[in-house]
Design a protein that fits this description.
There is one protein chain. The chain is an alpha/beta fold and about 450 residues long. It has two domains: about 45-275, P-loop containing nucleotide triphosphate hydrolases (Rossmann fold), CATH 3.40.50; about 305-444, no CATH class. About 50% of the residues lie in helices and about 15% in strands. It is globular, with a radius of gyration of 25 Å. It binds guanosine-5'-diphosphate and magnesium ion (MG).
Length: about 450
Amino acid sequence: MSGEATERFRAVVNQSVAEFKAAGRRDLIQDVAAETKRPPAGRPVVLIAGETRRGKSSLVNALLRHPGLSPAGPDLATSAYLLFTHGAQASATLGIAAGTDVERRPIPLDEIGEWATTEGNPGNVRRVLAVEVAVDALILKHVTIVDTPGHGGLESAEGSIGVPMARQADAVVFVLDAGSPVSDPELAFLRSVSARVDAVIVVVTKTDDYPGWARIVDDDRDLLRRYAPELANVPVLAVSARVAEKALARQPGPVTDRLWQESGVDELHRLLKQRVAGRASLLRACNILVTARDGLRTVNGLAALGVAAARGEPTVKTAIEAERTRLRQYGSRWNQRVNAGIGKVKLTHSEALGRGLGELQRKYTGVIEKSKRQEHEAIADRLVTDINELAAALSRQAGLALAGLVADGKLDVPVAATFPLADVRAAFRQLEQGHTRGKIVLAP
Ligand SMILES: Nc1nc2c(ncn2[C@@H]2O[C@H](COP(=O)(O)OP(=O)(O)O)[C@@H](O)[C@H]2O)c(=O)[nH]1
Ligand SMILES: [Mg+2]
């Protein structure tokens, strides 16, 4: 980021932190602080997350083109983090808990399973925290890949290490399988990940095993749209590590190429290169903003009345009508009070809109600067989604402000102008001029 962009970025983050302070939410301040304090990145870190036995380790092996490197199988469960980095010479190094220290010890590559699976190391009696594996795989020239343990489901205490760990990641590949649609705990996990990580890719694996995989992929997309709207636009890729293994076992040639294509693993490779590789600092900046945005949503979304108003619930509408009638009886005093009320709504609204647009602008300036021409269309699509999201968050906030005014007995908000979403910048300009008589409405 340029110096000026860095300054503006800091200002946005500081502003958010100030809001959290005002709301007495030390936890949210800590969340953002944790993001900003991470050491500078070299290659972006991609976390492979998901329920146990979904096929994470097999997918990692397919991506690395190194069958069996990350222990995988029907009776195996990964029990430690496996960090795959690039190295011309293959090597594996254990990280073992020794009191408060971490002892590092090299091991042969074929002993990883003895240390990093529930079978080789039941109950983790060997106190393995992680294994760092260096191999000469093409994908590792672009990103560092972390295969994650998980052996009690995402809901369990062990499974939940996935969420804090996700904070160490620049991007997350979330693995589902084609046997059944995304489950509630998986959706909940994805939602909490998306509150920290901007770059999320969903992968539906084992397509070779389930002839009905295409319907499951459609269902997954649909469920994400409905229950995790913030993830409505994440890429959902269908893959098969098994088909990739078949391709790996063959000599190069047209059939092998077709198998790679069919496996979907090449597509995942391409997506990681396009969206993640070479963007460590940009992804980190985005993740800080995502964390701040999530905090702002938490702070702004707590009041139940606000939620009811945003949903247009009849009781709230009736309250607004009654208030309007009451206020009409006030004559000139009514005008004063209404204007004060409008000022209040306008203030909250313009600050939030300004902040939100500023964030988006910064984010996308960075993204567009570093992207290739053919990616621009896809980026534009994402921008529109994000603006929609911002507008939805703002209408919720406006609902809150309105509800507050109803409670204060100060409500009547004439609408000065309605802008279609595409004119969001015009709306913003009018707000900036500050001469508006009524509330600015963004029509989604
Ligand atoms: N048919 C098929 N089986 C797979 C595929 N990927 C993984 N599996 C199997 O699913 C089981 C769990 O895989 P693993 O990679 O260990 O899952 P993890 O626990 O998420 O790391 C193993 O028996 C794998 O052989 C795939 O693409 N196709
Ligand atoms: Mg595994």
